[in-house]
Design brief:
alpha/beta; 8-stranded mixed β-sheet; 4-stranded mixed β-sheet; 10 helices; 22% strand; binds zinc ion
Length: 468
C-alpha cells in the first residue's frame, strides 16, 4: 500500500511545550492540511498529465522493434543494417532523434563509443562498445544536476558468447529500454530546470561494460548526478515456480552500507545509526513515495540490498563511485525465460519472448519512472548544510539548513520517522531555514528536503550533528 506522509499528531505535543513552538506546529499542520486537502498528497498537474501519456501500445512497438533485430548480443554484428547490436543501437538513436524534433533543440543524442580489448572472459575480440545517450538539457544554466534513467540494449542466450543465434531479450532488457524511450518521448516535450539523461547501455551481460564506461566518465568529469534509475527486467511479473501473476508490485533495490569510501564513513554511520540512510536508500524511499503518489495500483517494494544474489546491474558502477543509484526489477522473476535459448523442453517454452510481456504492468512501471524523473528535475536543489543541534541535553529537536544552490523553493519539509520505520512517516512544512520540533532527536530519524510551489520535492538530506 502507498505510504502516506501525514501531518504530526497533536496528541504528541508534550506539556512543557511553550507557545511559540506550539504555534509553529499548528501552522505547519494547517499548511499541510491545506496543501494536501483531505489528507491527499499534493500532486503536480503537469506530472499527472505526463503520467497519463505513457502508452502501452507505444511501449509494445519499441519492444517489437528491438526483438526484430534477432540478437542484440554485444559481440554480434555491427555491420548488418537489420540484425545485431549495431542495427539496434542505430534504431534507438533514430528514435531519440525523432523525439528531439519536439524538444525545441534541447534533446540531443549520440552513440558514445569506446574500444575495449579482449578480457579473456566475456570479450574475446576487439570490441567497439556503444551506449546510446540522449540528453535533455535543463533550462536553468546555474543548475548542473543530472538525473539518469537507464536500461540495457544488449542481451544473451544460454551462452553469453553466442553472438549469432536468435535472442529476443524482450524482458531482459527491452522492457527497461522501452521505459527509457517512452519517458524520453514524453519528457522531451517539457522543460525542466535540471538535466535528464536517457541511456541504453551495451555490454551489460558481458560484465556491466557500458555502465562502467559512463560512470567512470561521470566521475572523472565531476558530473553532478543526483539519481540513477536503472530498469532491468521489469515487464512481466510472473514466477516460474509459484505461478504468481501480479502486476501491482515492482522491487527497488538499493545498497545499505555504502560501497564508496565505507572506510571513511564507517565510524559516523556506526555512531549515528545511519546504516539505513545512505544516498541510494534515500533515493529508494523517494521513488517509492513519489511513484505510488502518481501511479495507482502499483506498490514499489523496497529491497534492502544492492541487487539479487549473484546478479549484477548497471546501477552498480554508479553506486561504486559514490552516486545514488537504484535498480527496478519485477517482483517475481521467471528463470525459464531469462538467458535461455528459445526452445520447448518437456512441454515448457523457454526463452525471453515478447508474448510474455504484460504491457499494462510495464506501462505502470514506466509511469513510475517518469513521475520520479519529472518530480526530481522540477524540484529545487537539496537544502545545504543540514544540521541537527546535539550540544544541549533536551527532548526537543533543532534542525537548521541553508537554502539550496538551485531554484527558489516555496519552503522545506522536515521528514521524520521512527528509527525502526522503513519510510518517512511525518513531515512538517516551513518556509524558514530552521525548525524546532517537540520530539527527541534520540528517538527518531530526520531529514530535510526543499519543495517547489508545484509540490516537487528535492531528494532528502540527512542532518550532520552540530555542536554549536
Ligand atoms: Zn538484464
Amino acid at each position: 500500500m502507498p505510504c502516506p506522509l501525514v501531518p504530526c499528531a497533536l496528541t504528541l505535543v508534550p506539556n512543557f511545550f511553550h507557545m511559540k513552538n506550539l504555534l509553529l506546529i499548528v501552522l505547519s499542520i494547517f499548511t499541510l492540511a491545506s496543501a494536501f486537502g483531505q489528507n491527499i498528497i499534493l500532486k503536480d498537474p503537469e506530472i499527472e498529465k505526463m503520467v497519463k501519456e505513457v502508452n502501452p501500445d507505444s511501449i509494445k512497438s519499441y519492444i517489437t522493434k528491438m526483438v526484430s533485430f534477432g540478437t542484440r548480443n554485444t559481440l554480434s554484428t555491427q555491420k548488418d543494417p537489420k540484425r545485431g547490436i549495431g542495427a539496434a543501437r542505430n534504431w534507438v538513436l533514430s528514435k531519440f532523434n525523432e523525439f528531439a524534433k519536439q524538444s525545441g533543440g534541447r534533446l540531443t543524442a549520440f552513440i558514445d563509443t569506446t574500444t575495449l580489448q579482449p578480457d579473456g572472459r566475456r570479450v574475446d575480440s576487439l570490441l567497439l562498445l556503444g551506449n546510446v545517450v540522449a540528453t535533455l538539457k535543463g533550462i536553468d544554466p546555474a543548475d548542473d544536476r543530472i538525473f539518469i534513467i537507464s536500461g540495457h540494449l544488449d542481451n544473451m542466450r544460454t551462452s553469453v558468447m553466442d553472438r549469432v543465434n536468435d535472442a529476443p531479450g524482450a524482458n531482459d532488457d527491452a522492457s527497461g529500454c522501452a521505459a527509457v524511450l517512452e519517458t524520453a518521448r514524453i519528457l522531451s516535450k517539457h522543460q525542466f530546470p535540471a538535466t535528464l539523461i536517457f541511456v541504453t547501455f551495451s555490454g551489460e551481460e558481458q560484465g556491466l561494460l557500458g555502465s562502467n564506461f559512463m560512470a567512470e566518465k561521470a566521475r572523472k568529469e565531476n558530473w553532478n548526478i543526483e539519481a540513477v534509475l536503472n530498469n532491468d527486467i521489469m515487464g512481466s511479473n510472473n514466477s516460474n515456480e509459484t505461478f504468481i501473476i501480479d502486476n501491482t508490485k515492482i522491487r527497488v533495490f538499493s545498497e545499505g552500507l555504502p560501497a564508496f569510501e565505507l572506510d571513511k564513513k564507517a565510524t559516523t554511520i556506526r555512531n549515528l545509526g545511519t546504516e539505513n540512510d545512505g544516498m541510494s536508500r534515500q533515493l529508494a524511499r523517494y521513488v517509492k513515495e513519489t511513484g505510488e503518489r502518481y501511479v495507482p495500483h502499483l506498490e514499489v517494494v523496497m529491497i534492502y540490498r544492492n541487487d539479487r544474489y549473484l546478479r549484477g546491474g548497471d546501477h552498480t558502477p554508479f553506486v561504486q563511485r559514490g552516486f545514488a543509484a537504484v535498480r527496478f526489477t519485477e517482483m517475481n522473476e521467471n528463470y525459464t525465460r531469462q538467458h535461455q535459448d528459445v526452445r520447448v523442453e518437456k512441454s515448457v517454452q523457454y526463452g525471453d519472448l515478447i508474448d510474455y510481456i504484460d504491457f499494462e504492468y510495464l506501462r505502470k512501471n514506466t509511469a513510475m519512472n517518469l513521475a520520479n524523473l519529472a518530480n526530481l528535475a522540477k524540484s529545487p536543489g537539496k537544502p545545504n548544510e543540514v544540521k541537527i543541534e546535539v550540544r544541549r541535553l533536551t527532548n526537543m529537536t533543532n534542525l537548521s539548513w541553508k537554502a539550496p544552490k538551485y531554484g527558489k523553493p516555496k519552503g522545506f519539509y522536515v521528514l521524520m520517522r521512527e528509527t525502526t520505520a522503513p519510510h518517512w512517516e511525518k513531515k512538517f512544512f516551513t518556509s524558514d531555514t530552521q525548525l524546532e520540533l517537540p520530539y527527541s532527536k534520540d528517538n527518531y530519524f530526520f531529514a530535510v528536503q526543499s519543495v517547489s510551489t508545484d509540490g516537487n520535492e528535492s531528494l532528502a538530506e540527512i542532518p550532520v550533528p552540530a555542536r554549536q
